[in-house]
Amino acid sequence: MSDRASQALAIGVPPGVPKSYRALADHRGVPRSTLHDRAHGQRSIEEKAVSQQYLYPSEEDAVVKFLMQMADLGQPMRMKHIPWIAFGVTHNRPESDRPSKPPGKNWAKALENRHPELQARRVRALDWNRHERNTYKKIIH
Questions:
Q1: I need a surface site. Which of 51, 64, 90, 115 has the fewest CB within 10 A?
Q2: Rounded-to-integer distance, Cα 8 and Cα 4, Å
Q3: Is the pTM of this model over 0.85?
Q4: Which intervals of the chain are annotated as region Disordered (predicted)?
Q5: Rounded CA gap, 7 and 35, in Å?
Q6: What would the 3-class secondary structure string for 60-113 be?
Q7: Any residues with CB less than 8 A from the CB of 46 and at least 6 apart, and which?
Q8: Other residues' Cβ atoms within 10 Å of the Cβ of residue 125
Q9: What are phi and psi of 55, to 5 degrees?
Q10: Residue 86: CB atoms within 10 Å
Q11: Are the C-beta atoms of residues 64 and 118 closer than 8 Å to each other?
Q12: DSSP 44
């Protein structure tokens, strides 16, 4: 009940004003159709968007914190792995509330847009001994 239309319905109209959606809309500065929708149980766009999120807010904060920690350690996660991390986080939920598959292909980018601190950073140089065959001889040859 955080949007203006719901608040207007809760407060109502002052005495002497007709009790109608039109009068309430004019008095509170809210669209009449929105008042009607809230009075009949329709959710606001923001409430609907929050309920459709893949992760709960606390889970999303945990994923962001993990990604930031990995980036601080010099090993940032690739975008293609982030949906699988989110899918792993959901396994702590009860089975009835658990999604059956990871989020869609655009979900990681949307997460990055919601949390600007996840923007790509400069990655440190790779270790020369990263692979069993050292690449140095190939490069100087």
A1: 51
A2: 6
A3: no
A4: 91-116
A5: 10
A6: HHHHHHHHHHHHHCCCCCCHHHHHHHHHHHHHHCCHHHCCCCCCCCCHHHHHHH
A7: 2, 3
A8: 6
A9: -105, 150
A10: 21
A11: yes
A12: P
Closest CA to 86 of 71, 72, 69, 67: 67
Ordered by start, the domain boundaries in the chain are 4-50, 53-118
C-alpha span between 57 and 11 (Å, rounded): 30
Report the candidate in 39, 22, 20 with the shortest Cα–Cα distance to residue 31: 22
Residues in the chain: 141
What does the pLDDT profile of the chain (141 residues) look like in tens digits? 568 888 888 888 888 888 888 888 888 888 889 888 888 888 888 888 888 889 988 999 999 999 999 888 878 888 889 999 999 999 989 998 899 999 998 999 999 898 888 887 666 666 666 665 665 666 665
State the Cα–Cα distance between residues 5 and 22, nearest whole angstrom: 12
